[in-house]
Amino acid sequence: MIKILVDCFGGDHCPQAPVEGALKALATYPDLYILLTGDEAILQKELEGKAYDKSRLEIVHAPEVIGCDEKPTDVVRLKRNSSMMKGIILLRDRDDIAALVSTGSTGALVTGALVRLGRIPGVIRPAFCPLLPTMDGGIVGICDSGANVEVTPAHLRQFAIMASLYLENVYGVSKPRVALLNVGKEAEKGDVIRQEAYKLLQETPSLNFVGNMESRDLLSGSYDVVVADGFSGNVLVKTTEGTALELLKKLKKEIFSKTIYKLGALLMKRMFADMKEFMNYQNYGGSVLLGTSKVVVKGHGSSKAVAVEKCIEQAYRMELSRLSEKIEAEIVKYEHYDV
Q1: CB 318 within 8 A of CB 288
Q2: Which of 84, 231, 289, 320: CA 20 to 30 A from 192?
């Protein structure tokens, strides 16, 4: 039985979305056990009238709520009975619990995971790795996307190793093509950090390093993993998501501007629906925090039930593949060189 904690208070659609997402995941995976963290009375009310296997779900009472303006360090020190921190502490203390899924504060989650859980031996810094769809129907992982604003070449090599193992073991991508986010494709492009990282990535036998990538090629399908510092990676992901959403809005506006466009849209209704689903980030789960001693998945703050279900699926598959053990086995090969 794989046990996963779900933080039910922190996102825009809590507790409805985490509860519904958890129940959907329970129905899909018969060997899954869910622990919901949050105010017990509210969660019991949310579960009323819903059909689920009561032997595989329990509530962990955590009455405190984390405010959006609270400092992450204050949350870790003072909000031990919040749904997020209660989950992190349980994840640390109980060997039978495999993972935590949360749509709450990113800063609090990262700080709590680092302080309370710790890192996989050899990992310098954990990193976020969200997934985006590519134009050829595949996926691409961006690592890092917000956990580490400042990095060294050694950090970037570890991000590449962890993300490559993630794509290969959890999503079945054979020999993931790894690229370094840069301002040009030539090897000499970028600052000193990027130039040195390029050499390190080239010298890492376990990586299928294919060179630099310019941001415009992110969704081309030519890459499976893109390595970046947390600042650049976060901007890359949000710019891509935002551009896709705005293009859909523009397309919808233009369609309704003329009768002839409306008639044409009727004939292409199915195609537009498929395109909307393709671009919907809710279908791709959350950002996994690679490098922590146990599995942590951060869902988008606006995640609905389907996104929470996908986050739980990510955590489930990561634990099933024993990803943390594989990351440790590979990272320690370079621990004497990475600082």
Answers
A1: yes
A2: 289
Instruction: Return residue ranges of the chain for CATH 3.40.718.10.
Output: 1-123+291-322, 127-284
Question: What span, in angstroms and rounded, lies between the C-alpha atoms of 255 and 22?
Answer: 37
Could you read off the pLDDT tens digit of each residue along the chain, which spans 339 residues? 999 999 999 888 999 999 999 999 999 999 999 999 999 999 999 999 999 999 999 999 999 988 777 888 888 888 899 999 999 999 999 999 999 999 999 999 999 999 999 999 999 999 999 999 999 989 999 999 999 999 999 999 999 999 999 999 999 999 999 999 999 999 999 999 999 999 999 999 999 999 999 999 999 999 999 999 999 999 999 999 888 888 878 878 888 888 887 777 777 778 767 766 766 666 777 999 999 999 999 998 889 999 999 999 999 999 999 999 999 999 988 865 555
Q: In this structure, what are the phi and psi dihedrals at residue 308, rounded to the nearest 5 degrees?
A: -65, -40
Question: Which CATH superfamily does the domain covering 1-123+291-322 fall into?
Answer: Isopropylmalate Dehydrogenase (3.40.718.10)
Residue 295 pairs in a beta bridge with 99
Q: Which DSSP category does 139 fall into?
A: E
Name the CATH topology of 127-284.
Isopropylmalate Dehydrogenase (3.40.718)
Side chain identity at 290, as an amino acid letter? L
Burial (Cβ within 10 Å: 0-12, 13-18, ≥19) of residue 301: middle
For residues 148 and 230, the answer to whether their CB atoms sit within 8 Å is yes
The phi-psi region of residue 99 (left if phi > 0; otherwise alpha if psi is between -120 and 50; otherwise beta) is beta
Is the distance from CB of 219 to CB of 131 less than 8 angstroms?
no
Asked if the peptide bond before residue 121 counts as cis, ω within 30 degrees of 0, the response is: no
Considering the entire predicted model, what is its pTM? 0.91
Nearest Cα residue to 159 out of 237, 223, 226 = 226
The H-or-E segment that residue 330 falls in is helix 323-331
Question: What residues pair up with 213 in beta bridges, in sequence order?
Answer: 181
What span, in angstroms and rounded, lies between the C-alpha atoms of 294 and 315?
A: 10
